[in-house]
Each structure stands twice: as C-alpha cells, then as structure tokens.
# Entry
Amino acid sequence: MEDAPSVARSSNNKKRKAGSEDPSPPKKAKILEESNVIYVAKLPIGLDEDGLKKEFACYGQVLSARIPQPPRGYGFVEFVDKSSAAAAVADTEKEIDGSIVRLSWSSTPIEKEPAPVLHVANLSPDATEDGIRAAFGEYGIVLRVCLRTGAGSETQKQPSGSANVEFSNEASADDARKALNETELFGHKIHVEFATSGRRGVGKC
# Structure
C-alpha cells in the first residue's frame, strides 16, 4: 500500500518527459537564418578576398568578404540584403576553381572599419533621401542617406540644405565625390566632400 504514491509519481514524471520531447528550435538557429553573412568552407587556398567577392556577386550585391590569415580554407561573405545571402546558401552545388564549396549561415559579423561618408551641401529644399541615394548610387553601394533638417516644429522640420551619404567603401565614395562635386542636383549646384568629422562614420543627423 505504501508503494502506490511512488508509482503514481513515477507515472507523472514519465508523462512530463514525454511532453517535453519536442522543444522549440534553439534561438541561435533562428538568428543564423536572419543573418546577411554566410560562412564558406572548403575554399581553394590561393583565393583572395577580392576573388571571393567576385565569386558571390552573382547572388546579389556583396558588401565585403574576409578570409582569415593565414588561409585555412574558409571565409565569410557579407551581402547587402538577407535575400541575396539566402540565395547563396541555397546553392548546394556552388563551385570555385572546380571544387564544390560548403555554404552555411554565419552569426559572426565581418569586422571592418566604419564606412566612408560624404557631406553634401547646398541641397535644394526639394531634395529627398531617395533622390540623393539614386544619384550617388551610380558610383557604388550607398548604405545610408542622412538628410539633415533645421528649423521648424518637431513634427515638420525643414531640410537644412545638407546631407550625409554613407558608402560601403572609400573608393566608391571618392568616385562619387569627384563626379558630383559642383554639379546640379534638384536644381541646385551641390558641394560634395568627405565629412569634416573624419572620412568615416555618419554620426548623428
């Protein structure tokens, strides 16, 4: 008679274990699926970072690529958007130099210096972020446009006539500076130079 409670407790424990056999997916797996950085294994040892970027440009715009030094047969590729990264990971037959590489999501961000920033002055009040992005995007990947505002109410501040444009690399920023400085945009002759707070980092608008 005294053993009955013990049997009942054992039965309840078995029920609880059976109910916990289907846990939700680990949070880390969800994070990896949302990354725009992929991990590339089985890389040819002679491949450099520029070559790695070119290999994956067919899936979308590539922001950067990194191969740890000394080369160990793996690297990382960062795309502008997650859909491009997803397209790359889905390619199970990707070949580089005749060998199939192994692709997977990566939670490791690619370490890089702050992006180069151009300061654009004498903008028209009619200037828009989309219009600025389109004009400067002709010379490379624009990561962010910060259209500065000045006087006005908190809900309706007026454009201050200047903006910051953040590029993915300094070469593209310099090409845009040389091409667009002292040219017309939205009917105004604009002045373009690297941000005075330094060549890198947009900071606050």
User: Anything to note?
Assistant: The CA atoms of residues 38 and 106 lie 5 Å apart. The radius of gyration is 26 Å. The chain has two domains: 27-105, 117-194. Confidence is low (pLDDT under 50) at residues 4-32, 151-155.
